[in-house]
Design goal:
Elements (H helix, E strand, L loop, with lengths): L12 E3 L11 E3 L5 E5 L2 E6 L4 E7 L5 E6 L15 E6 L3 E6 L4 E7 L7 E4 L9 E6 L3 E6 L5 E6 L4 E6 L7 E5 L2 E5 L13 E5 L21 H8 L4 E2 L15 E4 L6 E5 L3 E6 L4 E7 L7 E7 L6 E6 L4 E11 L9 E10 L11 E6 L6 E6 L4 E10 L13 E2 L3 E2 L2 E2 L34 E12 L8 E4 L14 E5 L4 E6 L4 E7 L5 E6 L4 E7 L10 E7 L4 E4 L11 E6 L5 E6 L5 E4 L4 E5 L9 E8 L1 H19 L2 H6 L2 H19 L4 E6 L5 E7 L2 E8 L8 E7 L2 E6 L3 E6 L4 E6 L5 E6 L7 E6 L2 E6 L4 E7 L8 E8 L2 E6 L4 E5 L26 H12 L20 H12 L3 H7 L6 H12 L2 H22 L32 H18 L3 H13 L3 H8 L9 H13 L4 H16 L3 H10 L3 H10 L3 H11 L2 H16 L6 H11 L2 H10 ...
Antiparallel strand pairs: 1-60, 2-3, 3-4, 4-5, 6-7, 7-8, 8-9, 10-11, 11-12, 12-13, 14-15, 15-16, 16-17, 17-18, 19-20, 20-21, 21-22, 23-24, 24-25, 25-26, 27-28, 28-29, 29-33, 30-33, 31-32, 34-35, 35-36, 36-37, 38-39, 39-40, 40-41, 42-43, 43-44, 44-45, 46-47, 47-48, 48-49, 50-51, 51-52, 52-53, ...
Helix pairs in contact: 2-4, 5-6, 8-9, 9-19, 9-21, 10-11, 11-12, 12-13, 14-15, 15-16, 16-17, 16-18, 17-18, 18-19, 19-20, 20-21, 20-22, 21-22, 22-23, 22-24, 23-24
């Protein structure tokens, strides 16, 4: 007997369908490059590059309402590896943190039983990467440890919390969107819950706000469009609760801090996007749509250094991209100039038809490259859009006012070489050049081209339609069909179409529109064709229109199998195809059955009217085909021998004749032979009938009386010598035909809906479907193998069942999903790294931690032995072949463009580091190398211009980067001082225009004084009306500002007054006075003493000279490194902006960031801001050379001996011992090719 084996390797998976309304907000695109999406109680993991579902997570019992990928803003090493970690919250209040690769739950968290409102990983701190903040309804925010599930603290608020947003520039600031307004929290900390209840403000609806317009002269044209909308929303945030008539509180759909500008917030309304300046609590920008336009439903913000942008999605499935033109003055008349934060519509995708059941739900943006969008539609579709840049002038009206966009002159943060390869659509920064400072429109450089942006649909995942479903797996794999077998699953749907899925990939193979009403059942008649039937709704007589269609898959041809029959007759209950696919039985509800010949499409017998009513029917697996074939073969051989003469027979080898006969017989027997087959059925009394069919003859066989212990028989299954009957009371009766024994088992599960035997010779497993679940039985042992019950294991009802292989079952359920499960029927989650995907997926997170770090090092340390390669086997890498193979698969999955850029000798080390950090979605690396690359080039340029820049002193104004090459304002105080000052002046001018109350005017005057704009500040102070209580103070202040002299006595008096004010709690007023007498450096020190570190840094950037500013910022960096703050990653970025490169290298090494430290020092040497042979610099000798040595040790631990030898050789005498260890017993160390810098470095260290 042939041993029982598994038919075909199929992964457990879930085919998902339409989304539940509660899934609307459950989608997230992580830095890891994958999209997570909730679908009922499951979570899909989608690879957007190949549009494949690569994992389905199942453990939630309720609908998933929130998903959030963990952030990657930490240094990655073996102990903190690249890992796919996801948090999900459901409608029952449960939060699960997943290990996505293995498909297992890392920890489960439960606080209350209401739906989770919002989730966010705390990313803006270095203390821990496991902190997860959640909003538990109605009014609690709870901080959890996402690794252990421990509750760290809990805080309640007065109102119901809908969502929250963190200030990306200050981790202690947070805004809660509540049912009544906004609560601003300024003392958020992971260490303890916020102490105060926060500052509560109310949102006045945009349309209800009073307009604040100055009386315009008659000649001025009436404002239109966005300006008109802007006037409507002058006053938006108030401290008083608005009246019920004036406001609709639920209008605000979304709240978010702007990631591109500090102290700005975005509020989304159905017809406006409002940009608020939080210092003024007033609108400074608006994106409005026409009254007849389609309302917004969601926005996504990005902080690209090319253009701060907003992606929006509206009800008509429009994805729009707006870009900021920064602060711009629209009219040229200075008296009437209204400065606005303007967002221009740059691109929108094609509209998609929206119906009652098809609505756009959510949009996600790739956080790494910011030029890819995913749109989730309620019917389960995921549409993947890519923003493409096309060179060429726009064909739009020049009066539209849109400034042109130009391609950048750099790639990966560095100027593009003349022959350097680049990928234009790598990210938004590589598509569009930098933002221009307001009011300046320099001509484009000679190598810049004007670009237009367009959305391109690059991927589409479509889900299953609405249930119910009828499913049927194609015939099983056999030795005869193994060469052309495909595991196809036919799914009949409620709209009459049949979907055919390939279960190897989980992708839709074909969609066929077959019927006009709901498909009730499918039966395959070969590997490439099937029969399906559908019944229309009954008429008054209870009669229906039956449709029985024969479908040929390769051609898609359908024809009515029963011809003209089918109108006004009782509904078809079931169709059953015989074991050899020769005959078909069609069973009706109140009409005798029909017997058809499938091969000829002819009706063999329509049973008489007195034929018993059929309740269950099954064909026997036994037949006489083999004996018929043997008889036919003997007859053919005899005929062949008669036709050949005696003389010829002697010359022709008889074996050849036999081969020809066999070949001929094989091609004809299937048509020529009609084998005898049997079927059994039961009537309403439980009596079993046996009928034989052979050719055109139908014979009635034996009848077996009903079993008294069984109720009405609902279904029958037959395999080998085992016959199983199931009844409406939940009893299973197992018949052993050989031994003539029967055994009844009461399951107490109610109606047995369906039973099916598993495929495979000798495989006697049985799948049983009940109204409340399913079971798998072993009919040999007559015992249950596994069970699934609604309410106990799962929360969905099973609609249909089948086997897809000998050890896997497929279940259709009422949540719109079809699940392929192991026989245990536990979960459809699986190990992602064991799955065979149709298209290879680039995701280093799928590798084991050691392999992911090796892959990163392999890409960073090109070329290897002087050769650029994408073949891991070409380097000296001591690792198992299996791991090497997985790394090579990742390398092979890179696009050809990416491979050619990575192998380009013109690609500098800084560009390579930035490119690899983008490829890996490494947030921490990307931020570090963006700032490091900018300032290394900036200081190197200054050095070339022979501008003396001592360690820690920022470059003077002459060496500051040009407007074409500045660090964008999203980096805030890390930007160059000149650009930062310019931005702050533009901002305060805008605030000045928008002011609508005395409070606003006072704030503007204070800001102008700090910025040194005394003349304009005096004008504002003198505007105070005489009936204002502050009239006298403001008048005196105006006098003071205008009469300040640089004489010693007045300065010392003002300084004394300022000091006293600060000592008595009036810090802001004292700082203003110090700034008036040009003592801003003292003001910064006072601010830092009183804990206002961010304010001190701001003041240093706008008022101090480079040396003084550098001192203030260095003190800030020391504060950030202190144990109570522990934000060293931010401190390193601050030191980079000051040019303290030796200090940065030392800090990176002390933090054990060995690869980043070594590569950074190498980049410093190559750019010329560090010198290897600078013997006077002890800093270089002591901490920086060991960075090379420790990096060499790290590479050795990964198995990269060649890389380890290279970096050990750069570490001078300290690396010699490591070199000996590396090549012990191999005849000494090999020669290592060194560049000029490395030779100098080696000589210096040996001295």
């Amino acid at each position: 007997m042939i041993p029982y084996t598994v038919n075909i390797k199929l992964a457990a998976r879930t085919l998902t369908g339409t989304l539940n309304l509660q899934n609307k907000t459950a989608v997230d695109w992580g830095w890891q490059g994958l999209i997570a999406q909730g679908c009922h109680s499951s979570i899909l993991i989608i690879d957007p590059k190949t549009a494949q579902t690569i994992q389905v997570l199942e453990k939630h019992k309720a609908n998933v309402v929130k998903v959030k990928w963990s952030r990657e803003n930490y240094y990655h090493n073996i102990s903190s590896p690249y890992c796919l970690r996801l948090a999900s919250g459901d409608a029952s209040g449960k939060i699960i943190v997943w290990d996505v690769v293995s498909g297992t739950a890392h920890c489960e968290i439960q606080e209350h039983s209401k739906p989770i409102q919002d989730l966010e990983w705390l990313w803006n701190q270095d203390a821990s990467r496991d902190l997860l903040l959640a909003v538990h309804p109605p009014n609690y925010i709870v901080l959890w440890n996402g690794d252990t599930g421990t509750k760290l603290w809990k805080k309640s608020y007065a109102e119901n919390i809908l969502s929250f947003s963190f200030d990306p520039f200050d981790p202690s600031n947070m805004a809660l969107l509540t049912s009544e307004g906004i609560v601003f929290i300024t003392d958020f900390s992971h260490a303890k819950p916020p102490g105060s209840a926060g500052k509560k403000v109310y949102i006045a609806s945009p349309h209800a706000s009073p307009a604040h317009t100055k009386p315009a002269p008659a000649a001025t044209p009436a404002p239109t469009g966005a300006k008109k909308a802007l006037n409507k929303v002058k006053v938006l945030i108030t401290n008083e609760k608005p009246t019920a008539e004036a406001v609709t509180l639920n209008d605000c759909l979304q709240l978010s801090y702007l990631p591109s500008k500090r102290n700005h917030m975005l509020l989304l309304y159905p017809r406006e996007i409002l940009i608020l300046d939080l210092e003024l609590s007033q609108t400074v920008g608006v994106v409005a749509i026409e009254r007849s336009g389609v309302p917004f439903i969601q926005v996504r913000l990005i902080s690209s250094s090319a253009f701060p942008s907003i992606y929006c999605v509206s009800w008509q499935c429009h994805v729009r991209r707006y870009t900021s033109s920064s602060y711009s003055c629209l009219p040229p008349d200075p008296e009437q100039s209204v400065q606005e934060l303007v967002y221009d519509l740059r691109s929108q995708c094609d509209a998609i038809r929206v119906t009652k059941t098809v609505r756009p739900y959510r949009m996600v943006i790739c956080p790494v490259n910011e030029n890819n969008a995913g749109l989730m539609v309620s019917d389960g579709r995921v549409m993947l859009w890519e923003l493409k840049a096309h060179t060429g002038k726009a064909a739009v009206n020049p009066s539209s006012g849109l400034s042109p966009l130009y391609s950048p002159v750099s790639f990966c943060g560095a100027p593009l070489g003349p022959n350097q390869k680049k990928i234009q659509d790598l990210c938004l920064n590589s598509m569009i050049g930098q933002t221009l400072i307001a009011g300046e429109v320099p001509p484009p450089l000679s190598n810049q081209q004007e670009v237009q942006l367009k959305f391109l649909l690059t991927g589409l995942l479509s889900g299953l339609p609405l249930p119910p479903f009828a499913i049927r797996m194609c015939p099983p794999l056999t030795t005869k069909n193994i060469n052309h077998y495909q595991p196809l699953l036919a799914v009949g749907t409620s709209n009459g179409s049949v979907l055919v899925y390939n279960l190897t990939s989980g992708l839709l193979h074909k969609e066929l529109s077959v019927h006009s009403c709901e498909v009730r059942g499918i039966e395959w008649v070969s590997l490439t064709s099937f029969l399906s039937f559908a019944t229309s709704a009954p008429n008054n007589m209870g009669l229906v229109r039956n449709e029985l269609q024969h479908v040929d898959l390769p051609t898609g041809r359908c024809f009515a199998f029963r011809g003209e029959r089918g109108n006004d007759e009782p509904p078809i209950e079931m169709i059953k195809v015989s074991h050899l696919k020769q005959y078909l039985v069609v069973v009706f509800r109140d009409k005798p059955l029909e017997l058809w010949d499938i091969r000829t499409g002819t009706l063999l017998r329509e049973m008489a009217k007195n034929f018993p009513t059929v309740t269950a029917l099954e064909w026997s697996p036994s037949h006489n085909l083999k004996s018929l074939k043997r008889k036919q073969m003997d007859a053919r051989v005899a005929m062949a021998r008669q036709t050949v003469s005696d003389a010829e027979q002697s010359s022709v080898d008889s074996s050849v004749i036999n081969l020809l006969q066999v070949a001929e017989s094989k091609s004809e027997t299937s048509q020529a032979i009609s084998a005898r087959e049997h079927f059994v059925f039961t009537d309403t009394d439980g009596q079993v009938y046996h009928i034989t069919v052979e050719g055109n003859t139908v014979k009635d066989g034996a009848r077996i009386p009903p079993d008294g212990s069984m109720g009405s028989i609902a279904c029958i299954a037959w395999k080998g010598d085992t016959l199983v009957l199931g009844d409406v009371d939940g009893n299973l009766n197992f018949w052993d035909l050989k031994a003539r024994l029967s055994r009844g088992i009461p399951t107490h599960r109610g109606w047995v809906k369906k039973i099916r035997f598993a495929p495979g010779k000798g495989n006697q497993k049985l799948l049983v479907m009940y109204t409340d679940g399913a079971e798998v039985w072993d009919t040999k042992e007559v015992q249950m193998v596994s069970s699934m019950r609604i309410g106990r294991n799962v929360n969905y009802r099973i609609l249909d069942i089948d086997w897809c292989t000998s050890d896997k079952v497929v279940l259709a359920s009422d949540d719109g999903c079809i699940r392929v499960l192991e026989m245990a029927m536990k979960s459809a989650s699986y190990r992602m790294d064991e799955q065979d995907l149709t298209d290879p997926v680039w995701c280093p997170y799928l590798l084991v931690p050691r392999a992911a770090l090796t892959l990163k090092a392999f890409l960073l340390l090109q070329p290897w032995s002087g050769t650029f390669t994408m073949d891991i086997t070409q380097v000296d890498y001591n690792e198992r072949g299996e791991i090497k193979g997985l790394i090579q698969e990742q390398l092979n999955s890179l696009s050809n463009d990416m491979k050619s850029v990575l192998q380009d000798p013109e690609l500098s080390l800084l560009q390579r580091c930035l490119l690899v950090s983008r490829l890996f979605g490494d947030e921490s690396d990307l931020h570090f190398w963006t700032v490091a690359s900018h300032y290394l080039q900036s200081f190197a340029q200054a050095r070339q211009l022979s501008v003396s820049t001592a360690e820690g002193q920022a470059p003077s104004e002459g060496s500051q980067a040009s407007p074409h090459n500045h660090l964008d304002i999203c980096h805030d105080v890390l930007c160059e001082s000149s650009y930062f000052q310019k931005f702050q002046l533009d901002r305060v001018h805008l605030q000045e225009v928008k002011r609508s109350s005395y409070e606003h005017t006072k704030k503007c005057a204070d800001q102008l004084l700090l910025l040194g704009q005394t003349d304009r500040a005096v004008q504002l102070l003198l505007e105070t009306s005489a009936d204002n209580p502050s009239y006298y103070c403001d008048s005196l202040k105006a006098c003071l500002v205008t009469t300040i002299t640089s004489s010693g006595p007045s300065q010392s008096t003002i300084k004394l007054v300022a000091t006293n004010m600060i000592a008595n709690g009036k810090l802001a007023e004292g700082v203003q006075l110090l700034c008036l007498i040009d003592k801003a450096a003292d003001a910064c020190r006072y601010l830092q003493t009183y804990g206002e570190w961010n304010r001190a840094a701001w003041l240093a950037k706008v008022r101090l000279n480079p040396a003084e500013s550098s001192d203030v910022l260095k003190r800030w960096a020391e504060h950030l490194c202190s144990p109570q703050v522990n934000h060293k990653s931010k401190a390193i970025l601050v030191l980079l902006s000051l040019g303290c490169f030796y200090k940065v290298g030392e800090m990176l090494h002390s933090m054990r960031h060995f690869d980043r430290a070594a590569l950074f020092i190498e980049a410093c040497l190559k750019s010329g801001v560090m010198e290897a042979n600078d013997s006077s610099n002890i800093l270089f000798e002591r901490p920086l050379l060991p960075a090379f040595l420790d990096y060499a040790r790290l590479l050795r631990s990964l198995g990269l001996r060649e890389g380890a030898a290279l970096w050990a050789s750069r570490a001078g005498s300290a690396g010699e011992q490591l070199m000996e260890e590396l090549f012990q017993g191999e005849g000494g160390a090999p020669e290592v090719i060194l560049g000029e810098e490395e030779v100098e470095l080696g000589q210096e260290s040996t001295e």
